[in-house]
Amino acid sequence: MFVLSKQLDTDGDPNLPFQRYAEYLERNRSQFPAAAYELAASGCLFDATDPSCPHDGWLEWARFEEAAQGARREIRTLTLRIRLLGAYHDRYIELFYPQVFSYVMSSPDSAAGHCDWRYSEIRLSDQGNLVHEIEWAGAPGLESRWLIEASDVRLQTFPLAEP
Known about the structure:
With 163 residues, the chain is an alpha+beta fold. It has three helices and eight strands; from the N terminus they run αααββββββββ. Strand 2 and strand 3 (91-97) form a beta hairpin.
């Protein structure tokens, strides 16, 4: 891991985790799906001044869909779409995972929601799939964590609808 809380919340050089992450991304560029690499390398996930950055966004919803094919609809593909209210409250940010292979979503205390999207990192699994790890802010020891293994991830933003 490169740019999650354990790596960023240190007394060392604050730029070093980002440099290591950029080197990792470039070294493995050909193995990443194009959209995932573009998102990870763009800096959008980390630049809190960018309104499209998920950092400090609030979860609106997460939707799994299981498309079915086959005579008995037995051939299944799982997708995931996450919608956040952007940190500046002027847009929605959506992340779409076209094929989810596995996921773990843990939240030791979600009575008040997930709090803010804190950090996230896109990397490759041992099987060569995309892994997106997301940390949600919370009281110490009560942070939520999502780990999504998928074929790709795409980020889009949409303006809030006028009232």
